[in-house]
Each structure stands twice: as structure tokens, then as C-alpha cells.
Amino acid sequence: MIDLIVLPLIKIVFVLTAVLIIVMYLVLIERTVQAWVQVRFGPMRVGPHGVLQPVADVVKLFVKEDVTPERADKVVFTLAPIIVLVPSLIAFAVIPFGDEIGIFGRPVPLWIADLNVGLLYIVSVASIGVYGIILAGWASNSKYPLLGSLRASAQLISYELAVTLTFVSVILAAGSLSMVSIVEAQRTNKVWFAFIQPVALFIYFVAALAETNRAPSDLPEAETELVAGFHTE
């Protein structure tokens, strides 16, 4: 009972909490570095040196008004962000965060599930988010979000092929699709696959930047043309 239900639930809560907190503070780090580069102060008002700014941002997002365009398809408009968010979170289910640890004499692996097709699972789940972006643009019933969503989905699908091809080098080096086996193979060989396959690492890095719409691959959010793209509504 404990191994089948309780431990997985504890792991899910722990992983989701850790991932969301890490993402919050990565955003803070990015904003701070951007401020340094632009010779200005970053977020400094909330907490000492702005360390509580992510908490304030979360509170702001929860209490701000949720506006839905009058002519939008309200059901699809509400479901679209969920379709984007949920796949990105459940992809962490197969990622190992460490080795087994002992809790009250019981070995507990630091991953939620060890699938023998873990890497394929991540690729498959990540591709679901494209549907959420397309639905978000279509449901808003506005041409700017629709054009932005089409651009974003086209870019995601295009660079997803490059990302998937870089995974092939990892599969060949590890001899498995399991994320746990891939990590174990790197520990056994005492070298990261990034050093064995530097070309694949470079391709993955460039494609990942393009998939996340970061500059210079921020065409879906071209503010001069589409007014922030599919984020408009």
C-alpha cells in the first residue's frame, strides 16, 4: 500500500514543488542578470535584495483579475494554458534526481517512475504542449494571437526534430531509453555524454533556445508585428 500509493504521491508533491520553486528563482536570476547587463537595478524591493520577488509575483498572479475576451471560446480558452502546463510538469516523472536513499530502513529511489522508454516518453509528452498553443490562439477569436500561435507551433514542431535527433546520440551511448539507465551509464563511464558528443550538445542547445522562443528565435513573439504574439489576449 505504501509503496504503491503513498510514496509515489509524496514524490509527486516533492518534485512539483521543487521544480516550481526552481523555475521561480531562475526567472529572478534571469531578471537580475539582465539588470546587471543593462546597468540598472533589478527587482530589489521585496525582501532582502529582492529574494522574495518570486513569491510576490505568485501572489500577484493569483489575485489579479482573470479577463476572458468577449468573443472567445471560454471553455477552450481556459483549457489551453492547462494543456501547455501539465505536459511540461509530468515530463519530470521519469527524470532521476539522485540515487536511492534510505528512509526508516526502506530504500526509496529519487524518481517517480523508471520507464524503459523514458526518453521517448519525454519527447511524446513535450509535443502535447503544441496543441495548447494552437488552441489558445484559435479560442481567443483574434487574428494576432492566432498568427502568433501558428508561428509558435510551426517553430516548435520544426526544432523538435533537431532535439529528437540529438537524443539518438545519447541512446546509442547509453544503450537504453530509460533515463535512470542513461544517468547510470554516465556514472559508470565517469564522463558526461555532453563531452562525448559536443556536436549534439551544441545542436540541442541551439534548438532548445529556439523551442523556448528566446532571442534571436523569438519570431512568435515579434512585438513589432504581432503585439507579443499569442500572449496578446
Walk me through the structure.
There is one protein chain. By secondary structure, this protein is an all-alpha fold. It folds into 2 domains: 64 residues, no CATH class; 166 residues, no CATH class. The protein contains 9 helices and 2 strands; from the N terminus they run αααββαααααα. A two-stranded antiparallel sheet has the order 1-2. The chain starts with a helix and ends in a 7-residue tail after the last helix.
List the helices and strands and how they pair.
Elements: H1 2-37, H2 53-63, H3 74-90, E1 101-103, E2 106-108, H4 118-139, H5 143-174, H6 179-189, H7 193-196, H8 198-211, H9 223-226
Antiparallel strand pairs: 1-2
Helix pairs in contact: 3-4, 4-5, 5-6, 5-8
Instruction: Order the strands across the largest sheet as they lie in space.
Output: 1-2
What best-fitting shape do the alpha-carbon axes yield? globular
Would you report the number of β strands?
A: 2
Mean pLDDT: 86
Count of the separate structural domains: 2
**What's the total helix number?**
9
Instruction: Work out the helicity level.
Output: 55-70%
Main sheet summary: 2 strands, antiparallel
Rounded to an integer in angstroms, the radius of gyration calculated over CA atoms is 20 Å
Low-confidence stretches: none
N-end to C-end Cα span: 46 Å
Order of helices and strands: HHHEEHHHHHH
